[in-house]
Write a structure and sequence with these properties.
Structural class: mainly alpha
Order of helices and strands: HHH
Protein name: ABC transporter substrate-binding protein
Shape: elongated
Number of strands: 0
Keywords: Signal
Number of helices: 3
Distance between the termini: 72 Å
Length: about 70
């Protein structure tokens, strides 16, 4: 390998290392996805979640055909 090629390779690796480290956070222990004042991200994946339940809307229920309404499933 020539001296020029080795120097070019070393400079390219140095530049790539500098660019990649510039993209990281200064403190990796901080979580940027967490809302302010919380340690976690706010996504509850446990079994005791507050689930959203749909409510029956009479106007929408009136639009369902009678055969489907009698069957009880869509």
């Amino acid at each position: 390998m020539s001296v020029r090629r080795g120097t070019t390779l070393a400079l390219a690796l140095l530049a790539a290392t500098g660019l990649l480290t510039a993209c990281g956070a200064s403190d990796p222990s901080t979580d940027l996805a967490a809302p302010k004042g919380r340690k976690d991200t706010g996504v509850n994946i446990g079994p005791d979640q507050d689930r959203l339940r749909g409510k029956k809307v009479a106007a929408a229920a009136d639009l369902v055909p009678e055969a489907i309404r009698e069957r009880g499933t869509l």
